[in-house]
Design brief:
With about 110 residues, the chain is α+β, with helices and mostly antiparallel strands. Helix content is about 20%, strand content about 20%. The chain has 3 helices and 6 strands. The strands form 2 sheets. A 4-stranded mixed sheet has the order 1-4-5-2. The protein has a two-stranded antiparallel sheet with strand order 3-6. Strand 4 (about 35-40) and strand 5 form a beta hairpin. The longest helix is centred in the middle third of the chain and has 13 residues, at about 65-80. The relative contact order is 0.13.
Length: about 110
C-alpha cells in the first residue's frame, strides 16, 4: 500500500469515501482494494490515517436475513459474559481487557464469590 494517493484532511476529491461514509449511503467496499489514504495531522503524535474507497466500485449492503437477526442478540449477549468469572458484566466487555473490570483489576474492587 505504499503507492496509494495521499490526501490531506478535508481535501479528498469527490468519488472517494471511507467505510463509514459508504455505510451511510447504504454501500460497502465489496472486495475492492483501498484506493487512497486520508491523513489528518496531529500535534504530538503521528497523523490519523483513514482509508478511502471508490464510490462507483462500491456494492449495496447485503440485507439482514431472519437468521442473522436471530443471531445478533445472542452474539451481543455473549460479549457481556466474562470468560473468567462467567457472570453477566452488564456491559460489553472491552477487548483490550478480555475480562470484566473486577476480574481485570482484582486489587481495586474485590468481587464477592
Amino acid at each position: 500500500m505504499g503507492a496509494l494517493p495521499m490526501f490531506r484532511w478535508r481535501l479528498a476529491p469527490d468519488g472517494y469515501a471511507t467505510r463509514r461514509q459508504l455505510r451511510a449511503r447504504g454501500l460497502r467496499p465489496g472486495g475492492q482494494d483501498v484506493a487512497a489514504q486520508l491523513e489528518r495531522p496531529r500535534r504530538r503524535r503521528g497523523p490519523l490515517v483513514a482509508y478511502l474507497y471508490r464510490i462507483e466500485d462500491a456494492k449495496p449492503v447485503r440485507p439482514m436475513t431472519p437468521a442473522r437477526w436471530a443471531a445478533l442478540p445472542k452474539a451481543n449477549g455473549a460479549r457481556r459474559i466474562c470468560p473468567q468469572c462467567r457472570t453477566d458484566a452488564g456491559y460489553v466487555i472491552p477487548a483490550s481487557l478480555g475480562t470484566c473490570v473486577p476480574c481485570a483489576s482484582p486489587s481495586s474492587s474485590p468481587r464477592s464469590a
